[in-house]
Design goal:
The structure is a single chain. By secondary structure, the chain is of the alpha+beta class. It contains 2 helices and 10 strands. It has one domain. It has a 5-stranded antiparallel sheet. The chain is elongated and about 100 Å long. It starts with a helix and ends with a strand.
Length: about 190
């Protein structure tokens, strides 16, 4: 091999070749970045949608279970030192007390409120004050978060005569400039009225 040929084989990349490789790599990296950005966007939105739907379904089921067996809707009642008044956004129920064996305790009632919280208006809570010997647990519990609408409707203008309560709720979250909405509707019949 002569000296001229050896020098020709040892030369590196030219400036144009290096810039071309950097340009191609930049385009490939931008494409990969877009794939990750789109995937993350879909993940965030799907997670929020699932959270909304689970929250709405859980709230509808929980409120239905709390009202199942209720004897009447109360106009107003003090539950755990808080006065609740039945309205379009608050439901106050009186239910016969059930013991640990699911037997009705004679002349004994548990009181239940379902409401949107004034200090946390995107959350729905239940507050239960059970009578002595009741299997229901006392206290305030979160029913669902991300709530934007909670409406109760009654089949009688005098809520104390209502035998059916309809509940409509909407859970909403905004994620990455997209508003995700889930709606739920249930009708509850007061079995013991």
């Amino acid at each position: 091999m002569n000296l001229r040929t050896a020098k020709k084989d040892e030369r590196g990349f030219s400036l144009m070749e290096a810039l071309t490789v950097i340009g191609v790599m930049t385009i490939v990296l931008l494409m990969v970045d877009q794939i990750f950005a789109v995937s993350y966007d879909v993940y965030v939105k799907q997670s929020a949608r699932t959270e909304n739907e689970n929250g709405a379904v859980f709230a509808a089921r929980n409120i239905s279970e709390l009202s199942r067996g209720a004897s009447e809707v109360l106009a107003s009642h003090v539950i755990n030192a808080t006065t609740y008044t039945t309205s379009a956004t608050t439901l106050v129920l009186e239910a016969p007390t059930l013991d640990a064996s699911n037997n009705i305790v004679a002349d004994s009632f548990d009181h239940i409120a379902i409401y949107r919280d004034g200090t946390e208006p995107t959350k729905i809570f239940s507050d239960i004050e059970p009578a002595a010997g009741s299997k229901r647990l006392s206290g305030k519990r979160l029913v669902t978060a991300h709530n934007s609408i909670l409406r109760f409707r009654f089949n009688d203008p005098d809520v104390t005569n209502a035998t059916r309560v309809q509940m409509y709720l909407v859970n909403t979250q905004t994620k990455r400039s997209t508003t995700l909405t889930t709606k739920a509707w249930i009708a509850m019949f007061l079995r013991n009225h």
